[in-house]
Amino acid sequence: MLPENTLIAKNQGRDALSKNDDEVGLVIDTYNDNRTGYGFIVNPLGTQVDFKINDDGNNIDLNWDTEWKCAVAEFNGGWCTEIMIPLNSLNTKKGWIPGVSTWKDFSLKF
User: Fold this and answer.
1) Half-sphere exposure (CA, 13 Å, Cβ side) for 39?
2) Do residues 52 and 30 make contact, with C-beta atoms less than 8 angstroms apart?
3) Predicted local distance difference test score (pLDDT) of residue 107
4) Statement: the pTM of the whole predicted model exceeds 0.70
């Protein structure tokens, strides 16, 4: 059994999703239509995954890439991330009001 404060992160390949890593994710719905958007995922190693969502969420395009930055820090058996996304890399309209969704997935099950 793993200690309670163990972080799980092995994936170091950009845009390679892993169901086994802890992760934090963010989806920005640039048209606030619940149909399209851009997603960003970070694991405790700072590995980045970005993707574009189309067709009412039925199409996830992992080939979409943009320049963005993240920083990760570990503390007391936990971790946090800071994500910096240049908004000009997203398809937006003037005066846009985005929808934003976040999630966390920790592979260690208690």
Assistant:
1) 23
2) no
3) 59
4) yes
**What is the distance between the alpha carbons of residues 4 and 67, in angstroms, rounded to a whole number?**
35
**Cβ-Cβ contacts under 8 Å for 100 (sequence gap 6 or more):** 26, 27, 28, 29
Would you tell me how many other CB atoms lie within 10 Å of the CB of residue 28? Answer: 18
Provide the token pair at 66: 């943009």
Cα distance between residue 91 and residue 105, in whole Å = 27
Q: Which two tokens stand for residue 44?
A: 């405790």
Distances (CA, A) of 43 to 56, 75, 81, 107: 26, 14, 9, 11
Q: Which amino acid is present at 19?
A: K
Distance CA 48, CA 102 (A): 15
pLDDT band at 110 (very low <50, low <70, confident <90, very high): very low
